[in-house]
Amino acid sequence: MMDALALDAPCAAGLPVTLAPGVRRLTAPNPGPMTGTGTNTYLVGERELVVLDPGPPSEAHRAAIVAAVGGARVVAVAVTHTHRDHSSLATPLARHFGAPRVGAQPRHGEWHDPGFVADRLAGEGTVLATDAGELVAVATPGHASNHLCWRQPGLGLLYTGDHVLGAVSPVIAPPDGDMGEYLESLARLRAL
């Protein structure tokens, strides 16, 4: 199954790319040294979907997400963590779609989006149902105290947010980031 997935499809801001059945990626127009080609937003599902990591406060990115969702029902706007480049659009999109914001609260507020307040707290084992299969939360603190990866067991996918990046290592900045927790989290993911 993994051979058929388009996980290496090029990133172009604002253009949805189908990665697998029921999985599309939109890249936000925020390229930079900390964000690479831009923050990735995932639409998981076709008719009943989750918007995962809605991204930075960009009107162009918000409009691209709304257009890509079309007439589907958004069941949740979820985040891997609440750094502003991943969560700033959560509140306006949740309001637009009438969907709950799902994520974990950080232990320390520095670097986090003060506007993100979860309507549904997520932690280890939290399940979000889509018509493309379930998303299951895996607690992966380290880069941020509230970092979650989301597994999609049916397709064998793992949405890693900033926990695992392409060609660079994530920043682990105390007090909210913790290198010991990060290494433990990496070991947990490897075991999956």
Dominant shape: globular
Give the strand order, joined by hyphens, for the main sheet.
1-2-3-4-5-6-7
Low-confidence stretches: none
Instruction: Report how far apart the termini are.
Output: 17 Å
- Mean pLDDT across all residues, rounded? 92
Integer-rounded radius of gyration: 15 Å
Number of separate helices? 4
Q: Strand-residue fraction?
A: 25-35%
Number of strands: 11
What share of residues is helical?
10-25%
Query: How many strands, which pairing sense, and closed or not: the largest β-sheet?
Result: 7 strands, mixed
Q: Summarize the helix and strand pattern as letters.
A: EEEEHEHHEEEEEEH
Structural class: alpha/beta
Topology (elements, then pairings):
Layout: E1 17-20, E2 23-27, E3 40-44, E4 48-52, H1 59-69, E5 73-78, H2 84-87, H3 90-97, E6 101-103, E7 120-121, E8 127-130, E9 133-139, E10 148-152, E11 157-159, H4 179-191
Structure description:
The protein is α/β, with parallel strands linked by helices and 192 residues long. The model has no long low-confidence stretch (mean pLDDT 92). Strand 9 and strand 10 form a beta hairpin. The chain is built from four helices and eleven strands; from the N terminus they run ββββαβααββββββα. The longest helix is centred in the C-terminal third of the chain and has 13 residues, at 179-191.
Name its key features.
192 residues, alpha/beta, 7-stranded mixed sheet, 4-stranded antiparallel sheet, 4 helices, 11 strands, globular
